[in-house]
Write a structure and sequence with these properties.
Length: about 400
């Protein structure tokens, strides 16, 4: 091969390598989580192709069932493992810790390299939880079992979780302190980066309700929390967010606005995200008032009483106001409760519809010239026997 051919070959090789993903060319480091394909199963080990020039080796007991006799993988399967050693040849991989002296040695490495470990919560103890990590007893402070305050720790008992070692002192009475919260926060940070790319006003995202307060509900959008104010839960009046949502419920929300702020605990920049359920719902006002004209009769229920009048719900989420001057049939009254009461069902006359301001003006004064005494007598009679006397108009006709 001539010198020119050598140069051409070298340039082609460089071009080929340059087109390969950068992750394929970098040799994994101790502590990295890697994925690869099982290429060979030997008597004592399972060999994994990690791509590029890297190859990993797993002890058979790492991928065997509880009795150690049956392998849970076969040639061609993909496995995920963590690099625990690199002697220059095949990378030593682990999917779980050994037990006894071997486990203690690996825990030292895991603590130094910040390699996560798996453990089973065995019991609730003072200040936190006791965890079995490959036969070694560990302790998780109550504040480190989740990234939120947990009042009752008992539901965690019997479950397996992944932890970060925050302190390990080997010995007969070694001290192993663990944190699940640290890993959850790292995972949330990764998810937040992905969510942040989609987080713009007007975007429609799916999330999970994480907590409910009197003023609204918090929703996890994927590492970033937003809040749905009680006024954005729906078009109807919502006295408590629990009427609409529950913790753990999956919801679809629209982003209203994003405001930068600073985390009071960490001092790090973050965002305040305002969300809405109402923005994605159909507008009941438009549907309910589209055909209403002055003089039309509507049925409804009184929902609120104010000194200036009574509010009547004529459709879910649509209220009209009967001004106090329209309640007395010409007689002056001091408060609407003198004539009507909350929960009372009745029929009213439409005085006007303001679509721009979303206001509906109603009247209980019938058009046949009934007196104030008539209105009071009829409304009180209707309240006393709901559902049996018909509408106000019917009663006036009978009178």
């Amino acid at each position: 091969m001539s010198r020119d051919d050598d140069e051409d070959f070298a340039s082609l090789l460089a071009e080929f390598e340059g087109k390969q993903p950068r992750g394929d060319r970098r040799r994994p480091k101790v502590g990295d989580v890697v994925r690869g394909k099982v290429v060979n199963i030997g008597k004592d080990a399972v060999f994994v192709d990690l791509g590029g020039k890297a190859e990993g080796v797993l002890s058979r007991d790492q991928v065997a069932d509880a009795d150690g006799n049956t392998l849970k993988v076969k040639v061609g399967d993909e496995v995920e493992a963590r690099v625990v050693s690199d002697a220059g040849g095949a990378l030593e991989l682990r999917v779980k810790l050994g037990r006894g002296p071997e486990a203690r040695a690996e825990l030292v490495t895991a603590a130094e390299m910040r390699i996560p470990v798996d453990g089973v919560v065995t019991e609730v103890v003072k200040g936190g939880l006791s965890v079995d990590v490959a036969g070694v007893r560990g302790f998780v402070p109550a504040s480190q079992i989740d990234n939120r305050f947990v009042e009752d720790l008992s539901p965690y008992v019997g479950h397996r979780y992944t932890f970060r070692i925050t302190r390990y002192e080997p010995g007969p009475r070694g001290n192993l302190v663990l944190s699940r919260r640290a890993l959850l926060e790292e995972e949330n940070a990764k998810r937040a980066e992905e969510t942040r790319r989609r987080l713009v006003p007007g975007a429609v995202l799916r999330g999970v309700v994480t907590s409910i307060k009197p003023f609204g509900a918090f929703v996890d959008l994927g590492g970033i929390e937003g809040m749905v104010h009680v006024s954005e839960l729906g078009y109807g009046r919502v006295s408590s967010p629990e009427e609409v949502l529950a913790v753990g419920q999956e919801v679809e929300v629209q982003v209203l606005k994003i405001e930068p702020e600073t985390n009071k605990k960490t001092g790090k920049p973050m965002e305040r995200v305002s969300l809405s359920l109402k923005a994605l719902a159909s507008d009941p006002w438009r549907d309910a008032t589209a055909q209403l004209t002055e003089g039309a009769r509507v049925k409804g229920k009184i929902t609120r009483l104010q000194p200036f009048g009574a509010f009547v719900e004529v459709a879910p989420g649509v209220e009209g106001l009967v001004h106090i001057s329209e309640l007395g049939a010409g007689r002056r009254i001091n408060h609407p409760r003198e004539v009507v009461e909350i929960g009372q069902e009745l029929e009213a006359t439409v005085l006007g519809v303001d679509h721009d301001k979303r206001r509906l003006a109603l009247s209980l004064t019938p058009s046949d010239g009934a007196t104030a005494a008539d209105v009071e007598a009829v409304t009180r009679a209707q309240a006393a026997t709901p559902g049996k006397l018909g509408t106000l108009a019917d009663l006036f006709k009978k009178k």
